[in-house]
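stuck on this chain:
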Amino acid sequence: RGKAAAIVLGIFLLIWTLLPVYNMLLMALDSDADEFTGSVWPPDPDFSSFASVWNEDYWLMAHFWHQFGNSLYLGVATMVLTVLIGSLASFALSRLRLRRSWIVTDLALLTYVLPTAFLAIPFVHIMHRYGLSDSLWSVIAAMVAFATPYAILILHQYGKLIPMELDESAKVDGASPFQVYLRIYLPLMAPALVAVGVYALLLAWNEYLYQYLLLSSTGNMTVAVAINQFFDSDEAPWNYMMAIATIYSLPPIAIYFGLRRFMVAGLTIDRKSVV
């Protein structure tokens, strides 16, 4: 009974989760998406909305691929910087035996006490003071600031599972701390680094508020911000909007399924798998 109930609950949650996505696809394939018919599948599926997005032949999508590139740049830069800062910080905390290193970890986690929405206006003010308004790097700085504490926590806990004897053996052979970090620490931390990197990329990819507040020009807009223009126009077809949303959701899905094995290994801490 328990197993059957778990299966039924899992199926229900799966349908409940995928239902909005399926409805989004239906609207993208329906040329009359402004009038919801309630059909399970459009009687005449129309792929013209996807073709319009691909060819950028609608005025609200004239810079779609450039904005898609901005979103990709934002996500990758956030991922790289988060992994770099988080791995260096966790290496210093767990391998260099710093006194009272727990204070750094706890202070980093205190950034999650305040909701990120409360910090939006101070971030906008700071970026304006430093001349970073309407710059992708202003959003990258904000996303890295929010993703790094989580990265430090995960990498610090994972790094504790790597035996210190490996570091000591390398130092006996003349390895510097940077060589230990580069040749021992990073390779053994690969699963956790992938998990943290994917988390940071998805955080930046799905973020809207900071992108909306910090990016204003067409050349620096991301897809998340540009799609908001559809709501400001009386002539915006819903099928075009849903086609953009469908295409925009493909990279995170591909990343998840491509790196799922590493993410599970990174979040499931097992001492034997590390060493």
Notes: The chain is about 70% helix and 0% strand.
